[in-house]
Amino acid sequence: MSDLEAPLRPKRKKVWVDYFVQFRWILVIFVVLPISFTLYFLTYLGDVKSEMKSYKQRQKEHDENVKKVVKRLKERNPSKDGLVCTARKPWIAVGMRNVDYKRARHFEVDLSAFRNILEIDRERMVARVEPLVNMGQISRASVPMNLSLAVVAELDDLTVGGLINGYGIEGSSHIYGLFSDTVVAYEIVLADGQVVRATKDNEYSDLFYAVPWSQGTLGLLVSAEIKLIPVKEYMRLTYKPVVGNLKELAQGYIDSFAPRDGDQDNPSKVPDFVETMIYNSTEGVMMTGRYASKEEAKKKGNVINNVGWWFKPWFYQHAQTALKKGEFVEYIPTREYYHRHTRCLYWEGKLILPFADQWWFRFLLGWMMPPKVSLLKATQGEAIRNYYHEMHVIQDMLVPLYKVGDALEWVDREMEVYPIWLCPHRLFKLPVKTMVYPEPGFEHQHRQGDTSYAQMYTDVGVYYSPGPVLRGEVFDGAEAVRRMEDWLIENHGFQPQYAVSELNEKKFWRMFDADLYEHARKKYGAVGTFMSVYYKSKKGRKTEKEVQEAEQAHLETAYAEAG
């Protein structure tokens, strides 16, 4: 939306928080960045130490740590200790939602030791990992073996546990689905201390399908077996600019990976990786990637771009050059491609450090990027946190592929946030109805991108300050999010719960399906031990009354069933 077309809004009077945010870069450069770099380095050393151990030793430590978790759970007094959650500090979570449930009475279980890759099984093509293993760690171990997780979320710090219990996506999700769709088995400690292995076809299949999106409210995940795929050394990436209105940009994006003849499973027609960035209401760049060998990449005339070097232009800005120079192709080392958005946190880095994309900063200090999201959260008080909730948007709108154009127009009209990230993903038709599910009857519509077994969705990533905020105008962030959530409910869309949510409980369960989740909560004893997913994701500090009501829920449920 151009400035001339922008709605007329009154100017917002600046308050002290505005000035603190404006000059926050001083704190980031002199405090957050050095500490972040130190923590990254210490984490790397810990990963190296773990890799030096044999799989047998890692498994032995894992078994001992699981016993400690079971013992800790059995120490809980249900009448006074509060609901169970992990001992991880609230600010450590990568998500932008405030972890308010940990600010009320609760019973902590320490899972900090669960950060080992337990096994990479070439025969089964499965990686067995603990929940705190992050994407940087697993790609560092697997890619040199020409193996990779089927879905590798872009940011290094994202953990397996968070991506399973919450939400994870990548440019390969149009083939493999969301991160949780690539899991083969879960090892979970239930409320009574029982340790179970859940798969799609064993006695715990209902638990297997209920875990994704449950936010860790069915049990404590202590390991997962995740699908591996063979990969090559490079990604052959094609950048294609598209110009037009938002509906035309949406169609260009769809055409970049979804054959119009419906042959969605044909690897010769469908790329290995897909993403699109919409830079304004009339311009976007579509990127499609295919794995390539080092022999192909190093052929004379081919361009190799090591985007992982600290001094390189930020990826989203590099891709934007296609708008001026036209379509081009280059080869990027596979692991560097996976983590292409890490250093600049997509484009959020521009807000955190306004000059960090400049050549001189990249060359001098780019090696310390990015600041850890957890430290950014730890160095902001309540007022700053609330300011960001009102003046800043970090939301993902998961919408059916055929509604992407409508979603782009909605974001342009209501939020004016650019760039916008588009990433497709399959939503599979499963034997049971899970919390997120495709539109009923989608398989009979034969829409572009759909198959008989999966409906194609798209993550419309909205990350940045809205246009009105950048122009100094009044903007009601909470109301904008409420309207977005209503739009998603009306259009069979979903909102990942790592983000700030304004949903009340009734609307939450209109967006998500509760049946299987509530069945699993009752069957596996989670009610009254683990908080419910709505309780956990609800905005605001929990009161003691809410804690007591949640604790008593299992007694009421048992009484009702007995009656």
TrEMBL record:
InterPro entries named among the record's database cross-references: Diminuto-like, FAD-bd_PCMH, Oxid_FAD_bind_N
Keyword Membrane included in the entry's annotation: yes
This enzyme's EC code(s): 1.3.1.72
Compartments where found: Membrane
Keyword Transmembrane found: yes
Superkingdom: Eukaryota
Membrane topology: Single-pass membrane protein
Keywords (A to Z) from UniProt: Membrane, Oxidoreductase, Transmembrane, Transmembrane helix
Molecular function terms from GO: Delta24-sterol reductase activity; FAD binding
Gene Ontology, cellular component aspect: cytoplasm; membrane
TM segment ranges: 23-46
Domain FAD-binding PCMH-type, residue spans: 52-231
GO biological process, one term: steroid metabolic process
Record-linked PANTHER family: 24-DEHYDROCHOLESTEROL REDUCTASE (PTHR10801), DELTA(24)-STEROL REDUCTASE (PTHR10801:SF0)
Protein name: Delta(24)-sterol reductase
Source organism (scientific name): Populus tomentosa
Taxonomic lineage of the native organism: Eukaryota, Viridiplantae, Streptophyta, Embryophyta, Tracheophyta
